[in-house]
Structure formats: structure tokens, C-alpha cells
Amino acid sequence: MDACGGGVFKDTTETSQVKKTDIHLELSKSCLIFVHTIDKTHIVMRKITEQSVNAFMNAKPFKSSNTEVVVKPNVTILKLFGNEIAYRYNDPERTLSITNCGWMTNTTKERLNGIPSVNIYQRKGVWFLNDKEWDGELIDVK
User: Fold this and answer.
1) Cβ distance 128 to 134 under 8 Å?
2) Which of 43, 62, 118, 127 would be 69's cystine partner, CB 3.0–4.6 Å?
3) pLDDT in tens, 29-65
4) Can you name the residues that pair with 84 across neighbouring β-strands?
5) From residue 64, how far is each of 53, 99, 117 by CA, in Å?
6) pTM exceeds 0.90 for this model
7) Rounded to an integer, what distance in angstroms lies between the CA atom of residue 127 and that of residue 4?
8) What is the pLDDT of residues 61-116, one digit of tens each?
């Protein structure tokens, strides 16, 4: 049993494909996480992120804890602590725009990283979006 009262995480992939220390740190932060396999690498995602991003991408209202999805006629909005961090417009291109609203937190980064085509990481205090330095200001993601 782990600290959350659930089963112990068991790695079912080749050990060379998994950074076990990264997964262990993520597991210790939250009991509600999922491990998804994409291209033989692992992405750790909390349940609330998976649910909210699913609602966001499918234009379905959602509210749980600090995360909310609001659906309007022309845009779907992903909110974190009331801050609008992502917009998916109902235009023909389905434009996706994101911002960190000035909050360079792990939670903001984790919620945004749940969105397909968004890959945010931090190196020496600097955020990168899809391998380009990003200041967190509103930007369209292709």
C-alpha cells in the first residue's frame, strides 16, 4: 500500500524507458494520477488534469476543486484558481491560445501540459513552450 491507501505503482515497461525518480516524485505529490504511454515515454497526469482537459477539448462544462471549464458560444475556457489559462475558439481552425497568467507554478504548467500540442518545461527558472523560450504571455499554439 502507498501513502494514499492504494496499490503500489509497478513499472511494466522497460526500465531504460522510464525515469523512475521523476515518476516517484510525481506519485508522492498526489494520489490521483495516471500514467500514459506515448511513444515509449511516460507522462504523469493527475486525474483532475485528465478530466478537465478532456472537457476542455470536447467543449463540455467541468468544475472540480481549483479547475473549471466554461463553455461559451464562441470559445471554451480552461480556468485554474479563476484565472483563464487556455482558450479554444470555435472558429474553423479551432485556435488554441494559452497563458500562465503570471503564475509560473507547477500546477499551472501541469494543467497546460495536459492539452494536446502543448509541451511546457522549465530550465533554470525559464519556461519553454514547445522548445521555444516563453514568458507566459497569451500565445496561439499550433
Assistant:
1) yes
2) 62
3) 443 444 443 333 455 688 999 999 999 999 999 999 9
4) 79
5) 12, 20, 24
6) no
7) 31
8) 999 999 999 999 999 999 999 999 999 998 888 999 999 999 999 999 999 999 99
What is the β-pairing status of strands 96-98 and 139-141? Answer: antiparallel
Q: Supply 45's cell numbers.
A: 497526469
What are φ and ψ of residue 127, in 5° steps? -90, 145
Alpha helix positions (H), 12-72: 20-29, 47-57
| Contact between residue 121 and residue 114 where contact means Cβ atoms under 8 Å apart | no
**Long-range own/partner contacts, residues 130-138 (CB < 8 A, 24 or more apart):** 136/99, 136/100, 136/101, 136/102, 136/103, 136/104, 137/99, 138/97, 138/98, 138/99
Burial (CB < 10 A; 0-12, 13-18, 19+), residue 15, is: exposed
* Length of the chain, in residues: 142
Residue 87: its H or E element: strand 83-89
